[in-house]
Amino acid sequence: MSQRGQRLFLVVMLAPSAVVMLGVVAYPFVYNVVLSFSNMSLMHLRDWHLLGLTQYRRVFQEPGLADIFRKTLIWTFANVTLHTVLGVALALVLNQRLPGRALFRTILVLPWAIPQYIVALTWRGMFNYEYGAVNLILRHWFELSPVQWLQHPTLAFVACIATNVWLGFPFMMVIALGGLQSIPHELYEAAAIDGARWTHRLRDITLPLLRPVMAPAITLGIIWTFNNLNIVWLVSNAGEPSDKTHILVSYVYRAAFNFYRFGYAAALSMVIFGLLLAFSLVFQRASRAAEPAY
User: Fold this and answer.
1) Cβ-count burial 143-153 (b if 16+ within 10 Å, e if not)
2) Please, is 280 exposed, middle or buried when counting C-beta atoms within 10 Å of its C-beta (0-12, 13-18, 19+)?
3) CA 155 to CA 75: how far, in whole Å?
4) Which one, 28, 158, 272, 274, has the greatest CB density within 10 A?
């Protein structure tokens, strides 16, 4: 086959996937950008028109949005930190020769395999004041009074974080375990001969060689957690109590599908996109994820 025929063959093979990508990614994105400059709402579903930067000004002038942004940062930092610490710690344990290691790996991956909405509704039931498992444990095991987890803003937010930590640590564990198994065992043997302790081997061998693997995973984890609507919406029952447990993405969903402020929601979603894009570029450069570890 000639070079021209090869190029034509590649174009024909790639065309269907390119059309699909345009349909499910490019078109919705461009449409959202257009909506962010419009007045589209329940009152202007068919007669909407462009307003310029009006919706973006409303976003930055929205009272209480700074507090929601602060909660989003706390939500993201707490979840990703616990995901990473728990995931790497469990990966270090599972990388050892333990009896029943395959069974433990299967059990620990289960939270990641269960659909998010099932996890969220299950944990919401576990935080129930009268019959939830969490309060039953507090009452019968520790002889403590039951807690109104879902009636207090801070406690409801903690309940959302606890649910998402349980749901998300297996991803980091699997990534870290794969990275650990790719580290040459000879490095540990050489370090042991030199008299290096376990903590020194962890600091000088394991963590540096895990960096190229974990940095992209942490970046993905931050993006996914920042945009995780299901857990906050379902566990807190749409931001209750009194809309005090919202993060930015749940606030966007509320603006669009509870109040039908489609133009405003599109503008806020573009602000979120810009924040995450800027963070991803800066974090990837700062973490030197694309550079070899040695």
Assistant:
1) eeeebebbeeb
2) middle
3) 13
4) 272
**Contact predicate 254/239, CB 8 Å:** yes
Distance CA 104, CA 124 (A): 26
d(CA 214, CA 92): 14
Q: Which of 270, 286, 248 is nearest to 37 (CA)?
A: 270
Tokens of residue 172, six digits: 């980091």
Closest CA to 89 of 214, 249, 259: 214
Domain extents in the chain: 46-287
Residue written as token pair 């973490």: 287
Question: Domain 46-287 is classified in which CATH homologous superfamily?
Answer: MetI-like (1.10.3720.10)
Q: How many CB atoms lie within 10 A of CB 138?
A: 15
pLDDT band at 1; cut points 50, 70, 90: low
The better pLDDT of the pair 22, 164 is held by 164
Q: What is the pLDDT of residues 242-291, one digit of tens each?
A: 889 999 999 999 999 999 999 999 999 999 999 999 998 888 787 765 55
Amino acid sitting at position 249: V
Is 168's pLDDT higher than 60? yes
Q: Which of 205, 212, 226 is nearest to 176 (CA)?
A: 212
Fill in the DSSP letter of residue 145: -
